[in-house]
Design brief:
Blueprint lengths: L1 H20 L18 H24 L20 H29 L4 H22 L21 H20 L21 H21 L5 H8 L11 E3 L10 H9 L4 H4 L6 H7 L6 H5 E2 L18 E2 L10 E4 L1 H13 L8 H19 L9 H9 L6 H11 L4 H11 L23 H6 L19
Antiparallel strand pairs: 1-4, 2-3
Helix pairs in contact: 1-2, 2-3, 3-4, 4-5, 4-6, 5-6, 6-7, 12-13, 12-15, 13-14, 13-15, 15-16
InterPro entries: SusD-like_2, TPR-like_helical_dom_sf
Organism: Hyunsoonleella aestuarii
Keywords: Lipoprotein
Length: about 475
């Protein structure tokens, strides 16, 4: 793990040097390494590290109160103003350091032929996820003209529906590559290079099918006619077990710990419970307190006290997020099977016969989520017994759609973009903007980074940050 974080530090030095010494600051079409090829076993750890570092250190510590699963955090855009630093860092790292490097890996793998299909598939799936998260943060982003500076020095920005359909296409491409891969003479991906699955293509196929369903659910919410595609992907192998979860592990030591704890140890003290930095948001309290759900005890300490309230930091007289959650070795999760179970429950209740039973999927999703936090998560500290889980889940009634939406929100705990997507897509739980907000709703989008506006004349004008994205149409 220490190797990963040394790579992140080098990347940071490079990125800052690029920003302050070049005119084409965030030219998403220029290879930042000026290289024509890339060793997957060197580049993939870099990409995983860059993705996770940005997601946990910046998005995680600064937008987790937008969806209000945490009561308050530092320098948050939740009142409507998105800083250029927040937007620029995320944009620059994901377009340049991630997509730029993945495009090199993908091009090399394609040139090598079927023996590198495994590399090509992994790079393609990671690109699909990156474009999906970019459009969920900004809506219109470069996709069709991105990463090709020779032909598109000022790439146009695509509508969200176009980007999401592109994500689906990338998932299909990755799956086709997996299906056609050659095991004879196959490129050897070292286990440490593929932080999700150690090169196991069977798990990558399950993940990519599941990622495709995530994109299709957003397309459907926006009004696109994708029901036949959803029916088809429901017939493929999707995530069902926590052993298939996609996550980046953290070792937990200095320089290799989750940024949620890192911000506490750097500026305050040893842990969250003693320093009162991150508290549960009101929706967590309202959905879990007194429900019998074991996640209440797994997530919240001093949970016999009142919550701090949204837009407020906790104090010794309020509940606080547990050290079980705010710890150095907490993994950064990209996808869990509970998300897929609950999509199936939603679709079943909406008439998709191929989704199975709404009640069964609903209970499977809750069970998988509790088991993740109380049994299966690496480094688990507090346990939820099978008996306690079964008692709670078996006692649940058949769900309404709002019940399913609430559970989708809970299952996305500590996944900042996914939780934000759920509350924007479903409008459940109902969230009010924080006091003193400049916008009329919760934050709906980021503004484009100033450097991209200055360097790409095709950048659209920013819209008010409370304007809903296309996928919020329904």
């Amino acid at each position: 793990m220490k190797k990963i974080y040394s790579i992140i530090i080098l990347s940071t030095v490079f990125t800052l040097s690029s920003i302050y010494s070049c005119d084409n600051t965030l030219d998403i079409n220029t290879d930042p390494l000026a290289a024509t090829s890339a060793d997957p076993n060197a580049v993939l750890p870099f990409v995983f590290g860059e993705y996770s570092a940005r997601k946990v250190s910046e998005l995680g510590t600064r937008i987790c109160d937008v969806s209000q699963y945490i009561s308050n955090t530092f320098n948050s855009p939740n009142r409507g103003a998105v800083s250029g630093t927040l937007s620029g860092n995320t944009w620059g790292v994901w377009y340049v350091s991630m997509l730029g490097n993945l495009s090199l890996v993908k091009a090399d793998a394609a040139a090598a032929g079927p023996t590198s299909n495994n590399v090509n598939a992994i790079a393609t799936a990671l690109m699909a996820n990156t474009f999906l998260e970019l459009t969920c943060i900004w809506e219109k982003v470069p996709y069709t003209e991105a990463l090709d500076g020779a032909n598109f020095p000022a790439p146009n920005f695509d509508d969200q529906e176009v980007v999401l359909n592109g994500v689906v296409d990338l998932c299909d491409e990755a799956i086709a590559l997996i299906d056609a891969h050659s095991t004879e003479g196959q490129f050897s991906i070292t286990p440490s290079s593929d932080m999700f699955y150690g090169g196991d293509l069977s798990k990558w196929k399950i993940f990519t099918n599941s990622l495709k369903l995530r994109a299709l659910m957003l397309l459907r919410s926006g009004g696109a006619n994708v029901d036949s595609q959803i029916t088809a992907v429901l017939g493929e192998e999707l995530m069902t077990s926590n052993s298939q979860a996609a996550f980046v592990p953290y070792a937990g030591g200095p320089g290799a710990q989750s940024a949620m704890l890192g911000i506490i140890t750097a500026f305050f003290g040893p842990d969250n419970e003693s320093q009162n930095i991150f508290g549960p948001g009101d929706p967590i309290d309202e959905l879990l307190n007194g429900s019998g759900d074991p996640r209440w005890d797994l997530w919240v300490a001093r949970n016999d006290l009142d919550p701090p309230g949204n837009d407020v930091f906790p104090d010794p007289e309020t509940s606080v997020l547990s050290n079980n959650i705010i710890r150095g070795d907490l993994p950064d999760v990209l996808m869990n099977p509970s998300e897929i179970d609950l999509y199936k429950a939603e679709l079943a209740l909406d008439g998709f016969a191929s989704a199975g039973s709404a009640e069964t999927n609903y209970k499977n999703g809750i069970r998988n989520s509790i088991k993740w936090w109380g049994q299966d998560i690496p480094g688990v500290l507090a346990l939820a017994t099978d008996a306690d889980i079964d008692t709670y889940v078996d006692g649940l009634s058949a769900p309404t759609m709002d019940d399913i939406y609430n559970q989708q929100y809970l299952a996305a705990f500590n996944q900042p973009v996914l939780a934000w997507n759920h509350v924007r897509r479903n409008k459940i739980p109902v969230l009010s903007p924080p006091p003193g907000s400049s916008i009329s709703t919760i934050l709906k989008r980021f503004t484009y980074p100033p450097d991209e506006i200055g360097n790409n004349p095709s950048t659209p004008a920013n819209v008010q940050t409370d304007v809903p994205m296309w996928f919020e149409n329904l």
